[in-house]
Amino acid sequence: MTNLLIVDDEKEIGHFLSHLFTAKGYNVKVVNSGKEFFSINLSLQKFHAAMIDLKLPDTDGLTLLQQIKKKQPRCKTIIMTGYSTIKTAVEAIKFGACDYIEKPFDDIDLLEKQIDDLLEDKDTNADEHIKHLANEVGLITGKNETMGKLLHTAYKVAQKNITVLIEGETGTGKEVLSRFIHHASPRSHESFIGVNCGAISEPLLESELFGHERGAFTGATQQRKGLFEIASKGTLFLDEIGEASRSIQVKLLRVLEAREFMPVGSEKILRTNTRLIAATNKHLFEAVQKKKFREDLYYRLNVVHLKVPPLRERKEDIPLLIDHILHRFPGIDISFSEDALRAILSYNWPGNVRELSNFITSIVALSDPTQNVITADDLMFSNLTSVPTPVKPQPHTITANGEHHLEHYLQNWTNHILSVFNGKEEIHLEKLLEEIKQLESKVGKAFIMKTLKEAGGNRNEAARRLKITIRKLRYLLNEKR
Fold this sequence. Notes:
Layout: E1 3-7, H1 11-22, E2 27-31, H2 34-38, E3 49-53, H3 61-71, E4 76-81, H4 86-94, E5 99-102, H5 108-119, H6 123-137, H7 145-158, E6 164-167, H8 174-184, E7 192-196, H9 202-210, E8 211-212, E9 224-225, H10 227-230, E10 235-239, H11 246-258, E11 260-261, E12 270-271, E13 275-280, H12 284-289, H13 295-301, E14 304-307, H14 318-326, E15 335-336, H15 338-345, H16 352-366, E16 373-374, H17 403-422, H18 429-454, H19 459-466, H20 470-477
Helix pairs in contact: 6-8, 7-8, 11-13, 14-16, 18-19
Protein name: Transcriptional regulator
Pfam families: AAA_lid_14, HTH_8, Response_reg, Sigma54_activat
Domain Response regulatory: 3-118
């Protein structure tokens, strides 16, 4: 028989839940305080599932959750919480709770389904579903524990119609995570719309979000719906929320508090049911302390707080990310040598996943169609000038960027040729002439990349400075290295 533990200080709720689940054939035990909970011998009495209220008169639910997960790690747990403690409930998920449900219980069928799903041991299926959804939106996670926990927490909160605030450095994948939340939510069949609050001026952003009436301002030749109306049943993603003006912040607060807004130039109040996800690359609480962001709006946005780790803190996922990026190029069969991967892993990636993606794209674009393996020496021709490559003095390799290393390469190559010329061994002339061609290619590319860097990446300007056509420049870049 299935054993279910219920911990709630409200005896009426305890009686109701006991009656509900006893009728379903469960063996239910109800306790009304932390003292009663600790009187249970968890070493002898096993529970398959536990429903724990977050607020108890003599303790808190998180303490009981940690205790039961320590004594009975296989016990499935659901946290019961009021709206005001949802943030703590999300923390409970990070501590190992399987889910949470809001009190009062408006949907008894949902409550029964949550318990039934837990006891049917759907965790394995859930893990597969999470991986499938993550791959669909391009959210790649591998061995990094922090990313794994983040993904599971995001999956849990996706099921709830609550606001989420995502923080993380530029390029970490905040929008990708928001898309994952949308696809994992009951709104997945509705629209997902994103807007960058820092990329649009205040008047245009107001019109974009709330819509406008015809004639509301110069150029408003017709009525236009705003994103809060268009995405009313879906998800609205507000990127760089910290860049929103004070005026926009006030209007956003109104939407979050009352779920209503007025289009620009209108006196008509419209309602919205959009699910809001906001993101920022700033520490938003610091902006609140500096009076640059409204405190009341911050707490409205920060119902659930998710932080995406920078790439330098999840380097073990880089090989998987590289494979994912390479799959964007059908027909391209390229891999990276061990030395190249070591060089890539030694770099800190200040631009995070976005920088890695641009780097791999650059490598693919500049590689010869017949080249299948990218070596550490090839990395010097990318835009990633800070990648340290292994220094192995060889006669025909350029070990890094810069004039010093080009000089070092030429000296090594000259010494190599002279040693062959002065040596007594047989000379393989064809091989020697091939090395001369490699010299021409390597030196030519070194000059091209130096000029491209000086020209800010502008190929037309680089071709002009080199006195060659842009077609010739592209041809030389695509020569075999």
